[in-house]
Amino acid sequence: MRSFSSWSTLAVGLLAALASAAPSSPYKSSMSKRQASGDHLVFCHFMMGIVPNRQSSADYDSDMQRAKAAGIDAFALNIGKDAYAEQQLAYAYESAEKNDMKVFISFDFNWFSPSSDASTVGGMIKNFGGKKSQLIVDGKVFVSSFAGDGLNVEQLRQAAGVDIYFAPNFHPEQTADPSAIDGALNWIAWDSDGNNRAPKPGANVTVSQGDATYTKWLGQKGYIAPVSPWFFTHFGAEVSYPKNWVFPGDLLWYNRWNEILQLQPRFIEIITWNDYGESHYVGPLSSKHTDDGNSKWANDMPHNGWLDMAKPYIQAFKAGENSPAKYITEDQLVYWYRPTLKSLNCDNTDTTGQRPDGVDTMEDAVFVVALLTEDGKVTAVSGKNSKTFDAPAGASAWKVDMGVGPQSFSLERGGQTVMSETSLREVKDQCPCGLYIYNAYVGTVPAGEPDALDKDGLTALTSGLKVSTCAATPSLTGAPPRPTANTSAPIATSAPAPETTNSPPPSPATSASPSSDVSSIPTGTVRIGTSAPATSASATSGPATPTIASTTVAQQPESGGGGCTATVTESSQVAPTNCLQSGQVWKGPNAGPDCCDGASPCCKH
Ligand SMILES: *[C@@H]1O[C@H](CO)[C@@H](O)[C@H](O)[C@H]1NC(C)=O
Ligand SMILES: *[C@@H]1O[C@H](CO)[C@@H](O)[C@H](O)[C@H]1NC(C)=O
After folding, report:
1. HEC states along 306-318?
2. Whether residue 565 has pLDDT greater than 70
3. Whose CA is nearest to atom 9 of ligand 2?
4. Is beta strand 102-108 parallel, antiparallel or unpaired with respect to 74-79?
5. Looking at the CA of 520, which ligand is closest?
6. Nearest bound ligand to the CA of residue 493
7. How far apart are alpha carbons 540 and 423 in whole angstroms?
8. Confidence bin at 238 (pLDDT 50/70/90)
């Protein structure tokens, strides 16, 4: 059962109706003024349908702890009618209690029937609503859903036997009168064509149009606004439910958070924690789950940096503020990109045989969000392309054209490198596992902890693949490039220089402007705390502050590292060197390509 992919079956009518809805500004609604800031809550959608392999409440602990640390108030536990649902709910409620988190049930009406399951659903609310970790809002047991228009809400309330705050994912055009509910979740977190696919010329329904439709419909009732980073799904003939498309991603995660700080709804729901199949997870790959085929595009694709990026925004949202700047207490760069360019043709080896629908709405670009305590120069190197940006204190977003090769990022102040990293994943001109992979690789500077799928999360990776060069194993588990503290190294010499880079080192004169996506964001949301103009860092920040976090030089030569040469064969290229083609020679840790899958044995010490 795959309740986590249920969005795909959404009624076409919903989006069509949104398309014709008046796109009045959602930002000036009376609702946003009414809410006291302490009232704001942050939820995150959690797919129970993909965690039947969890054995006890302990299997939920790391998710609870990580979400709580990010400022998430409650998980919306999405359940269908699976046999294991109640057992897993019990584990989740128990773990939430242990970890001082809150949870509530989000009934998935792809599986429950709106016309006949009102009492069943009410009975489950009765069973779980009294638990200590149940989210209570306005003194009532909080309950939500995916879909469910037409449900007999009165019957559900009676069966529950407790006061409930019912905020289902009903739709304004299917449930004209919202008087039976207390609030509602809007699921549509991506711009679309109004027909469950990416926008097309002449058909573009934006997320903020959905905000406007919902807030108008709900009046003073609680609006749960959606926030999602990405959408890519690529199930082929190897499963019974082929689906192959993207919605526009790129800087969605950054732009939407800024929108949320303007809109200030009472509730927001991050979509999702662990829906790997649609690539909108912000939880770790290591979060225990099974594999429905998503590992083909989730393997080696950590998203943890996205949760990092959300943290200051969540704090600002809860405080009712329009800028995350004052909640940024440490410098961090969060970057993301797809692993291949759109021009790469994988038709012959891909499991679907075609590019995902909607790829024209995405840019071949590497995106960087700078979370800075003070102004600085951010450099992004993508293959042969390099750009340096004058990033202001606070949050700002940038992009550079995507290039094949290593991807590296650095922060400089006053001519001194503050920190830099080279990503563990290169952009390639080969189809990963033969496939069109339009998921995003998300990294950070300083680098985060390594994160990988476990055995359960990889069981379907090779199923249906047309190439034999791909193994069901993580390949980015090697340690990130080792930090080498050097407080005096200028960026031009300490930043890892990709071998293929022909462009000259970036200089202040080549500093670029913010990307066009970014300049539409109100300036107040990206810059506070300084009156200096955002020009060159050396002009505004005065003497350099030697706040060295981790100056990194990738792949330092190591003495005694010889004897690593190995010729890769068809059968051995999976480990340790599946970056190479059969017949190529791996020359050890100091010659590229490196043992980029990090697997053992590997000559890198
Ligand atoms: C859809 O409209 C929004 C708002 O005008 C715009 O930012 C976005 O680029 C459009 N998308 C497409 C694919 O045209
Ligand atoms: C640190 O950087 C300086 C300036 O570039 C350089 O001379 C020195 O060798 C570096 N030290 C180390 C340990 O890399």
Report:
1. HHHHHHHHHHHHH
2. no
3. 489
4. parallel
5. 1
6. 2
7. 29
8. confident
Ligand that lies nearest to the alpha carbon of residue 557, given by its number in the listed order: 2
Domain residue limits, the chain: 28-324, 332-540
Q: How far is 537 from 514, CA to CA, in rounded Å?
A: 15
Contact in structure between 290 and 51 (CB atoms under 8 Å): yes
Helix, strand, coil percent values for the chain (each to nearest 5): 25, 20, 55
Q: Which two tokens stand for residue 150?
A: 């037409």
Query: Among all chains, which residue has been given the structure tokens 């009624």?
Result: 11
What is the assigned CATH class of domain 28-324?
A: alpha beta
- pLDDT interval class at 239 (50, 70, 90): confident
- Over the stretch 296-355, which tens digit does the pLDDT of each residue have? 999 999 999 999 999 999 999 999 999 999 999 999 999 999 999 999 999 999 999 999
Which amino acid residue places its CA nearest to atom 10 of ligand 1?
A: 204
- Say which amino acid occupies 419: M
Contacts of 105 (CB under 8 A, 6+ apart): 76, 77, 79, 89, 124, 125, 128, 143, 144
Determine the Cα–Cα distance for residues 475 and 361; give it in Å rounded to an integer. Answer: 29
Percent residues over pLDDT 90 in the chain: 70
Residue of 207 and 496 predicted with greater confidence = 207
| pTM metric for this prediction | 0.76
Return the number of other C-beta atoms located less than 10 Å from residue 570's C-beta.
11
Residue 447 Cα to ligand 2 middle (Å): 22
Terminal C-alpha separation, the chain: 44
Task: Find, among 177, 152, 190, the residue nearest to 18 by Cα.
Answer: 190
Choosing from 486, 550, 552 the residue with most ligand 2 atoms within 8 A of its CB, the one to mutate for a pocket test is: 486
> Which regions of 151-305 does DSSP assign to beta strands (E)?
164-167, 183-185, 222-227, 232-235, 243-246, 267-270
Does the Cβ of 361 fall within 6 Å of ligand 1? yes
d(CA 418, CA 435): 37
Residue 178: CA atoms inside 13 Å, Cβ hemisphere, count? 23
C-beta of residue 376 within 8 angstroms of C-beta of residue 463 = no
CA 597/CA 98 separation, integer angstroms: 37
| 369-422 confidence digits (pLDDT tens) | 999 999 999 999 999 999 999 999 999 999 999 999 999 999 999 999 999 999
